[in-house]
Every structure is written in structure tokens, then in C-alpha cells.
Amino acid sequence: MKRIILITGSNRGLGKATGLKLCELGHEVIFTSRKIDNLNPIKKEVETKKFNASFYELDVCDLGSIKNLKKVITKKYNHIDTLINNAGILNDRNDSILNLNSKLLHDTMDTNLFSPLNMIQQFNDLIKKSSNGVIVNISSVLGQLDSMTIGMPSYRISKCAINAVTKVVSEELKENNIKVNSVHPGWVQTDMGGSEASLKIEESVPGLVWAATLDQDGPTGKFFFNKKEIPW
Ligand SMILES: NC(=O)c1ccc[n+]([C@@H]2O[C@H](COP(=O)([O-])OP(=O)(O)OC[C@H]3O[C@@H](n4cnc5c(N)ncnc54)[C@H](OP(=O)(O)O)[C@@H]3O)[C@@H](O)[C@H]2O)c1
Q1: What is the number of structural domains in the chain?
Q2: Cα(156)–Cα(108) distance, integer angstroms
Q3: Ligand 1 pocket member 138 (CB < 6 A)
């Protein structure tokens, strides 16, 4: 099945690499970035390789921006098959929760929790029009409750909370057969992961592509790393 796949924060890092791989596999990808010019290099690559893709501005923290995109996509495509909530920030590497700056916590929750939820609220009717809808929330093992520890507190809390969103939304959308899962990409060499990270981007992408292109009878309401289920 050729999918129409919307990816947030797809101008660099995992969003960009996953989008290009999905294009290579024959899917049509909607690349988005909060600065449209940052999509120009991808646009060039897509044109050279004759991939199917479109490019739009989207700041996931701005509900108006999400609603504008919804209008454009509704007009152009009338449905989407996969939403990948990928955009994320990690701004509190060395902070303690005991004196956590509240603006930093709010900003992190805004990008990593409320924004993906807003995307789901705005786009679920377009996903319901797919014959095999999929939502992927890019999460992290840093949000796993079992192994929760000190360091990066706002990031951990935001990823734990998006996992709860995955669970609740997956239950609500079961009757529409929309698969909703959280995916940990691994510790990956991106701007966020840093050069010391254990995985190259191309080693992480197959797990994300798999989750974005699940079959009709694929899993829902689960947390995955590299195609394998992991605990919450
Ligand atoms: N790399 C890792 O080791 C790792 C591990 C676990 C989970 N993750 C998760 O994987 C996802 C992708 O991370 P990455 O490693 O690819 O990070 P990255 O290279 O830092 O890329 C983050 C992307 O999110 C976008 N973004 C941030 N705020 C946004 C906003 N308000 N609106 C639209 N886009 C926004 C950025 O856009 P700009 O260019 O405009 O800033 C960028 O495209 C994140 O959800 C992250 O938490 C990563």
C-alpha cells in the first residue's frame, strides 16, 4: 500500500532521514518544518530522485499553524495514512528536578506532549479516512517508568506522558482500526543525540519505517524499539 505520511520536524535528524527512506520505498511524504527554507535541501534531493513529496511550514507549538496545515492537506490529499509525531526538544540535560525551571518544563511539555496531542486531535478525522491508519509517537526509553531516574527531568516526564497519550488514543481509535504506538528510536547520532550516540541515523530508521507502515493487523497501544516491544 502506498501511504501518504505526514512527519513533524522533518527538516533534520530522524524526521528527515525517515521521510527520505519512506519516499525511497514509494510512499508520498509530507515534510514539515517550522522554517520552510530549512526544507530546501530535502526538496532538491526529492526532485533529483523523483520522489513523491510535499513541503509545508509547521510549528507544532502553534495551534494556528497546525490548523492551517490541516486545511491545506485536506484540500490536497483529503486523507492521510500515517502521522509521525517526531518533533521534539531536549533542553534540560544537566538539570535537577528539585530546582527545575518552570518555563523550561512548560516548553518541553508544549513541544513533546501537547503538540503531538494537538496534531492527533486535528488530524484524526483525516486518518480515519485511510483504509489502514497509523499514528507513531516518537518517544524515548528515558520516559520508561520502570527505569525512571535522575537527569533530564522535563524530557523524561514529557516522554512518559506521551506514552500515556499513545495508550489512551490507541484505545479510542481501536474501533477505526487505527494503529497508535510509541517508538524509541535508540540513542542516535543526531543534533539531539550527539556524536557519541551508539546508533547511526540509518541504523535507527528501519524501526521507525516499520512502525509507520504497519499492516492492517499490526499491533496498537504498544511501545517499540527496533520493531520489538519494550516495557512502559
Ligand atoms: N536522537 C536520539 O538519541 C533520540 C533518542 C530518543 C528519542 N528521540 C526523539 O526522536 C525525535 C527526533 O529527534 P532527533 O534526534 O532527530 O532530534 P533533532 O535532530 O534535534 O531534530 C528535532 C526536530 O524537531 C523539530 N522541532 C522542534 N521543535 C519544533 C516545533 N515547535 N515545531 C516544529 N518542529 C520542531 C526541529 O526543528 P528545528 O530545526 O526548527 O529546530 C527538528 O527538525 C524527538 O522526538 C526525540 O525526542 C531522539
Answers
A1: 1
A2: 10
A3: yes
